[in-house]
Amino acid sequence: MASAKFLSLLALAGVVAAADMPIISIKGSKFFYPNGTQFFMKGVAYQQGVGQAGSGATADGSSYLDPLADEARCKNDIPLLASLGTNVIRTYAIDPTKDHSACMKLLQDNNIYIVSDLSEPTTSINRDDPSWDVTLYKRYTSVVDTLSQYPNVIGFFAGNEVANQLNNTASSAFVKAAVRDTKAYIKAKKYRTSLGVGYAANDDQDIVENLADYFNCGDASSAIDFFGYNKPDGAAGRTWTDTAALYSANMSKVFSGGIVYEFFQEDNDYGLYKAAGSSGSKLKDFDPLAKAVAKASPQGVDMNSYSSSAKAASCPAVNGKWGAKDTLPPTPNDNACSCMYNASSCVPAANLKASSYGKIFDYIGANQPSALDAIAANGTTGKYGQYAGCDAKSKLAIALTAYYKALKSDPSACKFDGSAVLQTANTAGDCSKQTPSNGAGTASSGGSSGSSGDKNAGIKTYSVSAVVALAALAAAF
């Protein structure tokens, strides 16, 4: 089975806006140009790994290389991407503090759009210990702030294979909260309404149908706008016959194209190009892919004559096959967290490293479990403490103070071998008024942004079983 690792995409919602470069919008389950022509992704994942394939290490010690902040690299690579017939790239992590204007201009000059992940390796939702907190919220919204100005940005991925097997599907509640809050942020900031927020799932047949339903159930304010299906397969020596299948008449009725993994050669041997400094060389799969993409001519529909009668899916029940309840974590509130930190009597010592927090949390949880109630978060039960969305330092202060008070404010209860110290608590105001008592509403009652018309037309345009079967077929040729 010689095939690509594809991310096959379904579009779910969006509207049209105007800009110098044609803005891609979403209607029903399809992407469209402003003139009504359907848009199919012919994409390539574009992100070089740190310390792999000649990339070296980052000068600032970062865990990732921002592919859109290296002008020399972009000048070399973007024409090559265009020669592949690429009209979309996917980036997995960008640094919102850096300048992306040169690379974004080069992409626009070559008619290439972008879909970017919101996370980065050290700031993302952890499937084994999930949270949706102030730190993540700031990271995700900063990426939106940085990229929303560019007309060739189609949207963002709020998660990539976060839940990858049955025993960690509870993490999906936290990803869906990220979807809800990112969409609400885009609306509140009055950014382009065509900007979509999606999710990319792994190829696990035990959970993928429930994943698709969960992220598409309920109100449009918390539902994804597009769904990606990562389908890994053989690496080196690909013949790209699956490319023809993906853009065939049958599959183009469902899928809006795909994104090949990946441009840069890494240790996994999926690369199309071996980088060396700011240049490099094509690998054997490069030209065959270019030929396969050139032959692909998917037949789309006209937006004006297209209508979608799809409805949102029903949220899957929590049972032996699914572990995420439809009640979502609260929207992180930095003011509430700062309020609680200042109101805490026992706080982390100034020199305490974040890597040491876990041991203290574990000790408190083992000896005074109720001290963690205000910061607890459980995606399976849908129970969330009022301050579950706080940053780790604020959470620790809240837990330390609760533990200290449970031991009748004994000074020895705020020592932890010098890891905690007493402070004069600021009791002015009621911090609890700034955050909900449990979660931010169910997926069906949604968050802060409403919807109308076909904006919540979802995956159920086609049965999910058909989507899964076709996705598997795309990588099996």
UniProtKB/TrEMBL annotation:
EC class (word): transferase
Localisation: Cell membrane
Region (Disordered): 429-454
Signal peptide limits: 1-18
GO biological process, one term: fungal-type cell wall organization
Domain of life of the source: Eukaryota
Residue stretches of biased makeup (Polar residues): 429-438
tRNA processing is among the record's keywords: no
Keyword annotations: Disulfide bond, Glycoprotein, GPI-anchor, Lipoprotein, Membrane, Signal, Transferase
Record's GO cellular component terms: plasma membrane; side of membrane
Database matches in InterPro entries: GH, Glucanosyltransferase, X8
Ranges where the X8 domain occurs: 344-433
Molecular-function GO term, any one: 1,3-beta-glucanosyltransferase activity
E.C. designation(s): 2.4.1.-
A Pfam family matched in the record: Glyco_hydro_72
Lipid bilayer topology: Lipid-anchor; GPI-anchor
Main location: membrane
Function as written in the Swiss-Prot or TrEMBL entry: Splits internally a 1,3-beta-glucan molecule and transfers the newly generated reducing end (the donor) to the non-reducing end of another 1,3-beta-glucan molecule (the acceptor) forming a 1,3-beta linkage, resulting in the elongation of 1,3-beta-glucan chains in the cell wall.
Protein family according to the UniProt entry: Belongs to the glycosyl hydrolase 72 family.
Record protein name field: 1,3-beta-glucanosyltransferase
Organism listed in the record: [Torrubiella] hemipterigena
